[in-house]
């Protein structure tokens, strides 16, 4: 029973901060085959959640659920405090305006120039041409590609296309970024340049993010590095320290095999996780 004294104790500050994404008991099956079963987790403001797991375990399905692109069979999903599973298409459209998406295949429009691709959402929102151009240049500068503004996707390397895709995702100043395998299909050196951009976005803008990766190396690079704004480069945090805003979610056979911080993951005693991380 609560006492007068206990009710007077002020609640911790964190109680006032609403998570950006909340999954509660979410399940979904395709063709009677369960893909995600009773999944619950939340992502706090400013957090980067790295999603790992074997091929086909449901990582992309989880991300599509977070974006309201598909609906769960049961459970609820809240994004920015709103239940996306109950939203009308028009409200989902407004919600997605606050979300930046980076797809594995970059998903650029081949017939549009880099400038038109990056400005796509601004044009949809009827942003005046002059302002749109300034913002495109700024976003392309962020990813180090301002010189490619007049090129077409077919003239770019895979890594450059991925960088354009990141510029397109950040141009609206999103409150949440969903990265679906942003380094997929890239060589290790190019992958590192993409991870560096993700770290830069995390440490400069503190945008809440969900990031799927198949490469453990990328996941740990994200956790162990920070962006140095003075040098304009990513650098090791050092002394074995890790980024406090980066957490991990590992899926296996439709369930959460791990959800927590980097140190807990690397010191796990779970046999399956140890094998997966080896
Ligand atoms: N629209 C759909 N219809 C039927 N099955 C689907 C659909 N979308 C996903 N699946 C199935 O759900 C399972 C999980 O797919 P998902 O793409 O989320 O896996 P993943 O973990 O992202 O895989 P990968 O690491 O290979 O990208 C797979 O078996 C896939 O075939």
Automatic annotation (TrEMBL):
Record organism: Granulicella arctica
UniProt cross-references to Pfam families, sorted A to Z: ABC_tran (PF00005)
Domain ABC transporter residues, every copy: 21-278
Record keyword ATP-binding present: yes
SUPFAM superfamilies in the cross-refs: P-loop containing nucleoside triphosphate hydrolases (SSF52540)
GO MF annotation, one: ATP binding
Keywords, in A-Z order: ATP-binding, Nucleotide-binding, Transport
Name of the molecule in the record: Phospholipid/cholesterol/gamma-HCH transport system ATP-binding protein
Source organism superkingdom: Bacteria
